[in-house]
Write a sequence for this structure.
């Protein structure tokens, strides 16, 4: 039986970021953005929402994903796992909005989905009226809009707060330790850059995916209405459904580590190519090494090494990190 996400409150919006940084699990912030003009426009109807958005539109081309009606909004792979069950087209944002309105009253409408679109680029001026006090985090704001959709469970490395501005979203969340129970698909061939669960949440095949029952037993669920927000910590898996004829959310992504550290995923990919192929006893040895140097790092662990001689075991500023990345590149050539 799934559990509901813990609700939370922020007494002073100016300290929102401090609250988010203090949470290690998802939190619902009901009504956090009720005051946003875009939410108020959506509450007046889908046509009013489209009119509101178009005042910021500068005829930018955006990626639109078209999903046939038979797929019931699920963005996924094709049957042969050689590609995907949707097509991508570049369209003017205003045209995509008009197409969504046209589908509003169609009984068997294909799904149209515009996702992960930079608001600063697509709708300049929008954030002046619809924003969160996250300046210190230098958060990236993106919009996601479409009719009915089902986005397969995936994780994101940045911390994330999603704000529903129109329609409704049903979100199912899993802690990072549930990865083995989610039956994750390919790492190199993905619908949108991140690996996804292969399980169809609308009709799970427990014969093919028996451990998914355990994932569901540990899942958190939330139903979000216009004005509600949900904080999703880094690396938490989340499956998101847009359940109305027109759904929109705005999300903010940020990381509390320097950007020059690069992509953590690259470490996993390289380990798959080098360590995963080793005999079991060697893999266990490398597991001990990673635990020592990365996962179980203790204060003062390298005090026996003079500070000037610690190299990548010491403090890493941007210049030092780039120096050792160059050192690593040379080793990768061997």
């Amino acid at each position: 039986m799934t559990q509901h996400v813990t609700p939370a409150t922020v007494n002073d919006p100016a300290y929102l970021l401090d609250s988010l940084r203090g949470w290690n699990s998802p939190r619902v912030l009901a009504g956090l953005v009720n005051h946003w003009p875009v939410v108020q426009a959506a509450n007046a109807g889908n046509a009013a929402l489209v009119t509101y958005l178009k005042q910021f539109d500068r005829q930018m081309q955006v990626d639109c994903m078209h999903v046939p009606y038979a797929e019931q909004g699920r963005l996924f792979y094709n049957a042969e796992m050689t590609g995907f069950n949707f097509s991508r087209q570049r369209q003017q944002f205003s045209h995509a909005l008009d197409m969504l309105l046209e589908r509003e009253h169609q009984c068997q409408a294909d799904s149209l989905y515009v996702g992960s679109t930079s608001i600063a680029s697509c709708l300049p001026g929008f954030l002046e009226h619809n924003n969160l006090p996250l300046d210190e985090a230098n958060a990236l704001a993106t919009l996601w809009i479409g009719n009915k959709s089902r986005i397969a469970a995936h994780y994101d490395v940045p911390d994330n707060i999603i704000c529903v501005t129109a329609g409704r979203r049903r979100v199912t969340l899993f802690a990072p330790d549930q990865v083995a129970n989610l039956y994750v698909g390919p790492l190199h061939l993905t619908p949108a850059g991140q690996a996804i669960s292969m399980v169809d949440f609308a009709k799970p095949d427990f014969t093919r995916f028996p451990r998914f029952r355990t994932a569901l037993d540990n899942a958190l669920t939330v139903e979000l209405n216009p004005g509600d927000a949900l904080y999703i910590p880094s690396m938490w898996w989340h499956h998101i459904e847009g359940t109305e004829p027109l759904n929109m959310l705005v999300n903010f992504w940020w990381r509390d580590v320097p950007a020059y550290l690069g992509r953590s995923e690259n470490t996993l990919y390289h380990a798959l190519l080098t360590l995963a192929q080793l005999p079991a006893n060697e893999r266990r040895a490398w597991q001990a090494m990673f635990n020592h140097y990365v996962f179980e790092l203790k204060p003062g662990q390298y005090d026996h090494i003079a500070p000037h001689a610690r190299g990548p075991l010491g403090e890493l500023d941007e210049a030092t990190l780039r120096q050792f990345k160059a050192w690593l590149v040379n080793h990768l050539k061997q």
